[in-house]
Amino acid sequence: MDPMHSGMRYTPKVTEHDWDPSLQFLPASDSKKLEKKKRPGKVGAVIGLLVFFLVISLMTGLLVWHFHFRKDVRVKKMFTGSMRITNQVFEEAYENPNSTEFQTLARQVASQLKEIYSKTPQLSKYYVGSTIQAFSEGSVIAYYTSEFNVPAGQEAAVDNTMASMDRIVDKQQDQQRRRHSDRDNSNLVFEDVMTSELDTRLFKSSRAYRYTQHTRANHIGILESPGFPNYPYPPNTLVQWQLRADRGYVIKLDFDTFNLEENCKKDFVKIYDSLVAIESRVMEEICGYYSPSDHLTFTSSGNVMLVTFVTDEARNYPGFRAHVSQVPRTTRASQCGGKLSGASGTFASPNYPNYYPPLTSCVWSIQVPSDKYIKVTFEKFLISDAGQRGNMCSKDYVEINGKKLCGEVPSVETAKANSLAVSFFSDASYVDRGFTAKFEAFEPKDPCPNKFMCSNGNCISEKLKCDGWNDCGDNSDESTCKCEKSQISCKNGLCKPKFWLCDGVNDCGDNTDELNCGLCAKGQFMCSNNKCVSDKKKCDGKDDCGDGSDEANCERSNSVKCTSYTYKCKNNNCVNKMNPECDGVDDCSDGSDEKNCDCGQQPFKTSRIVGGQDASYGEFPWQVSLHIKGSSHVCGASIISDRWIVTAAHCVQDDAKTRYSQPGTWEVYLGLHEQRDKSKAVKRGLKKVISHPSYNAYTFDFDIALMELDSPVTFTDYIRPICLPSPSYVFPTGKSVWITGWGATREGGYGPNVLQKAEVRIINSTVCNNLMGGQLTSRMLCAGVLAGGVDACQGDSGGPLSSLSPGQSSSRMFLAGVVSWGDGCARRNKPGIYTTVTKFEGWIREVTGV
Ligand code: 4AZ
User: Fold this and answer.
1) Would residue 603 count as lying in a domain?
2) What is the pLDDT of residues 687-705, one digit of tens each?
3) Which entry of 64, 98, 482, 642 is 20 to 30 Å from 47 by CA?
4) Which of 420, 447, 474 is the last residue of a domain?
């Protein structure tokens, strides 16, 4: 990698001198010019003195300010922590802060903490005091907050010292033990000291409430945001729930409603595996909207949990409700790990599909019949890699075959033995949903029973062999095939489905499937009306076909008779060049093809390619997110002017619950990148929603709608319009185009936080119509990857299908389609269907005046 680009600073080598002593300097050509000409006169001396005094007074001022005032600038720092008191036994009275037992122990803890801080030079001067928040079981665990008043500039020293509190306490207690031996044993013995700076968002709120709840057997408690379900939650509020369960139980927190602002920097719920807000015990921070079927359920590792809820000054949402119950710890342990035997079986992380608890460790010992080997397939895999550096999987992981796995990529592992151990480990912070896995025994000599074994070791169904698709990933299922009647025999030995013949895409790889496609003789051009004309007559300025198709799509523009294949200039003259608009060349005599061209430019285009990945911020500045007011993302749209956006008509059809056709229902986000961070986006309401009058809700024909913003937007690098193609604009079969949106990342799945982009290709309409059961109309356009895996999905509807057009000086994106419908998402042989925008340019311009 180029070190200048990898964030490493380029530092030239410095020798003892800053120059190489072996070098000789060239003599100055006119050494006299380098000499001083005159000594300074009187005026110069006065100016010099003045400057000298000025510098001295400035420095004195700075020193006075630094020593007198700056030392008084102090910063309040709050730390929270917990520690185990090993020489005490928990009593029930410790749960009640008003009990004498609590107060006596709290006083002792606070006084010992004070002593510890006073013996620590970096802390003693700034220490203000500590409050003991709670005690829990395990000998006794004490939870506290400590306040420091730190001079500006000293914060880092205090942070570093607090970060090593565990070692400091151990050392001080060791020294004390050595000094006092057994004589003084009245001191509390602290272990497992954990501290972190308190999340500043937790002490900024103007209203703070604290609740404690001890769940009991067979009882389900309720936890609700203030005002729920009748009112939105209040602004500037902090609510904390300290939850406890009986000894030997853990806490289950199960959200059935969760609807907060989508920016976690503003309103959020943070769950801790502790009774205080220690960062190293955070289980998860959540915000935004979760559907009730999302399994938003958390389990603690011990019998305590802290739930914090913080709101900022603005934009308050309905809030949340959660059920709290206690679950015996033993039940949980028996769900985790164990012996698995037989020819096949399944296993999963604890609580799957709910979040696994922190501090979990399980081992599954798999044993299959002695003459067999084992294959483990991880089907779902979500292991938190929050805060992990690189690919180390140093926090939560699954360990198999000596390999640690974490993150979100399911995989297959095999063992050349009849026994295998799979372990799962979660550390003290940040949990996720875990995994499901299946194991199977296989014959060592036949690793893929009843299946085809790929060269890379994968097993695929025999049916997928030689079907034209690269199912193995290494093409080994397609390399030695005898083609069937329903297939094309490519010259290079591959077999491809017959319906790909002459579809304009080189499916074979050697173009065999695209040769000899016309019915015309060699040297002839086939017109769109199937007439054959000599190749020489193409683009000669005369309509030899009779339908103008031999005069369309020419390299250079000629003024020709107007047909549906030609571009119409404003003065009603027509030119025959393919896609002449906004290409940087004046093709129309009136220059109208280069007017209104402030569109389709990507200020932040990156060179990253292939489908289904995060777009970069500003890469698709015309992308819009349509929200139901106060709720989450519903559909996409595209900016076409400072007041108008284009979406799908099916996004704005009323249903029994919501009046989607009404402007007041919607709020529109422009320049949005992350759904959870709208701080940089521009929000607008709507003035008008205009669905195409011919939209057919059964066939999705004419699936296009226009929306007028309630006030115009100013274009920025992140908010810009896309170019509208004229009716003659050609998006040829096989052309690469981009789909973008916040729609589900798999069929039936969730929407992502960051805008996604994927590259797909335009698919021949006849091929597509066959694949889609004849449901296509001329207002529909197909794009996708027929092998499956890349597609638009639920939530992408209304969004753009953007097509890059190379221009003379700069390329631009044109709106080829509007995401409309499909048969599921990313299925093989089921492309996405888009509204053909070229068919609606006239309607759009007429309605909007754009
Ligand atoms: C939808 O429901 C949707 N695979 C959009 C596009 C596609 C499928 C569904 C295309 O919004």
Assistant:
1) no
2) 999 999 999 999 999 999 9
3) 64
4) 447
The answer to whether 718 and 680 are in contact (CB under 8 A) is yes
Q: How far is the CA of 778 from the centre of ligand 1 (A)?
A: 19
Q: Give CA–CA dist 344/356, Å, rounded.
A: 24
Residue 472 is predicted with a pLDDT of: 76
What is the distance between the alpha carbons of residues 659 and 666, in angstroms, rounded to a whole number? 10
* Sign, Cα dihedral of 606, 612, 618, 621: positive
pTM higher than the cut 0.85: no
Nearest residue to 359 (alpha-carbon basis) of 299, 410, 401: 299
Catalytically active residues, by annotation = 650, 703, 797
> Is 50 exceeded by the pLDDT of residue 15?
no
Q: For all residues of the chain together, what is the average pLDDT?
A: 85
Q: Higher pLDDT residue, 474 or 33?
A: 474
Confidence (pLDDT) at 9: 23
- Domain around 433: 335-447
pLDDT at 274: 96
Q: Does residue 383's CB lie within 6 angstroms of at least one atom of ligand 1?
A: no
- pLDDT of res. 722: 98
The CB of 797 under 6 Å from ligand 1? The reply is yes
- Whether 453 maps to a domain, the answer reads no
**Do 85 and 120 sit in the same domain of this protein?**
yes
User: Phi and psi of 768, rounded to 5°?
Assistant: -65, -40
pLDDT at site 268: 94
Residue 19, pLDDT score? 27
State the pLDDT at residue 37. 35
What is the pLDDT, as a whole number, of residue 206? 82
Rounded to the nearest whole angstrom, what is the distance from the C-alpha of residue 780 to the centroid of ligand 1? 14
| 761: helix, strand or coil | strand
Average pLDDT over residues 786-805: 91
How many domains is the chain partitioned into structurally? 4
Query: 744 CB under 6 A from ligand 1?
Result: no
Q: Within a domain: residue 206? A: yes
Minimal-distance CA residue to ligand 1 atom 11: 794
Atom nearest to 791 CA in ligand 1: 4
Is the shortest distance between the CB of 819 and ligand 1 below 6 Å? yes
Ligand 1 and 312: CB distance under 6 A: no
CA 795 to ligand 1 centroid distance, Å: 7
Q: How far is CA 409 from CA 254, 475, 610, 679, in A?
A: 26, 21, 17, 31
3-state secondary structure of 280: helix
* pLDDT given at position 540: 85
Last residue of a domain, one of 163, 198, 233: 198
Residues 635 and 779 in one domain: yes
